[in-house]
Structure formats: C-alpha cells, structure tokens
Amino acid sequence: MITYISTRGQAGRRSFEDVLLAGLAEDGGLFVPEIWPTFGADELRAMRGLDYPSLAARLLAPFTEGCFGHDELLGLARKAYASFDHAATAPLRHLAGDDWLLELFHGPTLAFKDFAMQLLAVMFDEVLSRRGQQLTIVGATSGDTGAAAVHAFAGKRQIRIAMLHPEGRISPVQRRQMTTVRADNVLNIALRGTFDDCQDLVKAMFNDAAFRQRMRLSAVNSINWARVVAQVVYYVWAALRLGAPDRPVAFTVPTGNFGNVYAGRVAAAIGLPVAKLVVATNENDILARFFQHRRYERGTVVPTTSPSMDIQVASNFERLLLELEGGDTARTRARMQAFAQSGAFALETLGEVAHLFAGGTADQGTVAETIAATLHATGELVDPHTAVALAVAVRHRPLPGVPMVSLATAHPAKFPDAVRAATGIVPDLPARYADLMTRPERCVSLDNDLHAVETAVCQQFGAA
Ligand SMILES: *Cc1c(COP(=O)(O)O)cnc(C)c1O
C-alpha cells in the first residue's frame, strides 16, 4: 500500500485518508507518495478504450488503496464528472500540425479546477459519512477556486462551506457563479476589503482554537494531494488519444501555483512517456525564471489579464523541490525555511527530473496577440490563461512528430473583457449559464472584522 510522507520529513508515514483530510502536513510541508506506483506500457494500452471516469478509477486506485477500492472510486468518479457538459469530459482539439488543445473547461464553473474539486468533494463526503463527522470548509477566493469549491460542495451532507471574496473586486461572472448556487450548506461572504484581507480573516479563523474546534474547520486549497492526483487523469487521457504509450507527448501548462503542471510530472512518474512539460507563466514569472536560471526568487505580484496566475509563490513547487534535492527532506526543509526568511534560493545542481521541464513567459501584449492570432488561424476563441500557454508553446517545439498539447484551463466567456479587447468579440456563456446574469444571488456583505464573520458562519450553520 502506498504511504505518504511530508516534503519536510517530520510528519511520519500517512494513509491516503489522512492526507485527504489534512491538506497541509503538520510540519508545514506537503504530502507526497513515498514511492510512485507505475503502470507498464501494456497496462496503459489497455486503458485506451476507457471512458473518463473509468480511466480515473484505474489511475487513482493505487494512490487511494486502503481508503477507496477500484469500484468505489469508479462510483465516485462517475458522480464527480456527471456535471460536465461535454461527452468526452476533456475533449482534445487539433489546432494545426503537431499542435493540440486540451479543453478543461466543460465543468460546472468553466475552469479546470472543477476536475479536482468535484472529485475531492465526493471523496470528502464519502469519508466523512463513514466516520459520522461533519466539517466546515472556509476559504478565500479571488475567483476560480472559490467558484469551483462552492459548486463541488453544494448539497453535500457532511460538509458546509463558507467562502469569502473581496466585495466589488471579482468579475460579475465569477461572483455570480458562487452567489447563485442555492444550497443551505453554502455561505457566500462579500467582504469590504481586499483579497489579502479575506485571506487574513481565514487564517484568523483557523488560529481561533475555540472556533476552529466548534466548527471543525477545514480547507481545500491547491496543495491537497487529492486535488493534484485527480489532475493526473487528463494528461493520461490526452496522451492515450495521441498514441501513448507508443509515442511521447509534450504539454504546455499555464501555471500559477504549480498544481496543474506538477500533475503532469506525476503522470510521467507513473509511466506515461512525457517528452516535455513547459511551464508557461504571465509577467508573474517566478517559475519560468527558476527553470531558466535555477534561482527561485519572489517578486511582487503584477495584476494581468490572466488573474488566476497572478501568483509569486507557487505553493506546489515544494513537491518538485524535494525531487530536485534528490528526495532529501532535510535539505528541502532548510531551503523552504531560507526562502521564508530571505525570499530566494538558488540550486547549484538539479536532479535528473529537471530535464523534464522548460519554462517561458508571455506578457499581456503577447497574450492579446495570441488570442487574436488563434482565432484567425483556427477559429478557436481562447481565454487569456490558455493564450499564455499557446504563446509559450510555439517557442518550445519538441521534435517533429511529437504532439504538443496546450492546456485550455478556462472557457473564454469567463474572461470576456480580455477576449473582447483582443478580438472585438464577446464570447457567449455556455447554455448552462444562459440566465446567469439574471438569477437571484445569495450573499452577505460584511465588514473586515473577525467577530462579524465568525458570527455569520455560526448563525448559518450552528456548531458541527
Ligand atoms: C488556477 C488556474 C491556473 C493556474 O493553475 P495552477 O495549478 O495554480 O498552476 C491557470 N488557469 C486558470 C484558468 C486557473 O483557474
């Protein structure tokens, strides 16, 4: 059975169930499997005909052993992906030559985060109902993550969710995706403050021990191992359609917190022939700089047209760092402590795994040009995050005959202003959201005050 350890080496050996519910390890590190399960070429070939939930169950089974068996996983995956509105779940579109686009925006909130969050929610609900426990998830969002979480957890019996967003500072589409959800276990809070104020309040709620215990607080941020492993599935799904395991495939991934592209690293580790993982960033380019110069150095966040990637410290990077350090948890811990102090570190030598990666940056002007050029050349309207990937992918062509798959992480209608500025076209929302702008909203507006927020959460939910 696969067990999990912390990247910082001080949390012992843990089961999948522990890792699922805990998120972050107690020593401040991130959970990773102690060894990789692997799939041989014959096993991968045999997966070619599977539908998406069946593939998910096959790939995840070794990771969840002891918590979910294959058949149980299959049931959970069917439930999780039933809310996607494309028959292929993750359709692959041919652009030109060796270039492909993997559309990851057919889930309920039109961004790739639905893939992980939907599965995480059904896993949480199942484990908690076995234990007869309830949890209250609290989170802060600047857009995509909160919407994905609210949709995934709405109506789940064992879980209540309170989501804070900065009032007036997220797009109307993003806000309405959260506030038009009608479920009694959802509380939307519009905070009179900034996104950082929201995050500080969430931290303060966790630091209030009495409140934390009374409400049984939990979080579902992007470092949760279950979210990472759920994302491995679409890499394998796309590659199998392009001839893997008999042909290697390269991917370009629009990157912020390094969760999505790290799932590509896991796909390679378990046996998928991955030719390259290209880490594509906007002007917030800490990762692209790292892969170019081996120096990891925090900068200041610049707001861009791809806001879900406006991140300077990539929370999942620590998982790769452990591998770059040859699996040495003590060195990884020391590096992260140094980074917390000084905001930078440099690696003199990189482990073998570094060859898998390349990095590149596309600025906002290039992104706008890429949206227009892609529309002109292929008829596809792409969102700004996807355009970052497409712009960087052309500079990192693998060998001829090796497909390059760019990940389309959001539907263009989720970021209509940038798309209209680049093309003059306002992208239509998919049918499921045709009446989004007229549906009634449910949301409380609160001052930036811990007591006010805690009171609202207690009033809505009572104790857990
Ligand atoms: C979250 C997000 C990203 C960045 O993904 P990471 O896993 O944080 O690297 C890219 N595009 C969109 C649309 C997102 O919502």
Automatic annotation (TrEMBL):
InterPro entries listed in its UniProt record: Ser/Thr_deHydtase_PyrdxlP-BS, Thr_synth_N, Thr_synth_N_sf, Thr_synthase-like, Threonine_Synthase, TrpB-like_PALP, TrpB-like_PALP_sf
Catalysed reactions listed for this entry: O-phospho-L-homoserine + H2O = L-threonine + phosphate
EC number annotated for this UniProt entry: 4.2.3.1
Domain named Tryptophan synthase beta chain-like PALP: residues: 102-346
Pathway: Amino-acid biosynthesis; L-threonine biosynthesis; L-threonine from L-aspartate: step 5/5
Lyase among keywords: yes
Keywords: Amino-acid biosynthesis, Lyase, Pyridoxal phosphate, Threonine biosynthesis
Cofactor(s) listed: pyridoxal 5'-phosphate
Every Threonine synthase N-terminal domain range: 3-81
GO molecular function, one term: threonine synthase activity
One matching Pfam family: PALP
Enzyme class: lyase
NCBIfam families: thrC
Family: Belongs to the threonine synthase family.
Stated name of the protein: Threonine synthase
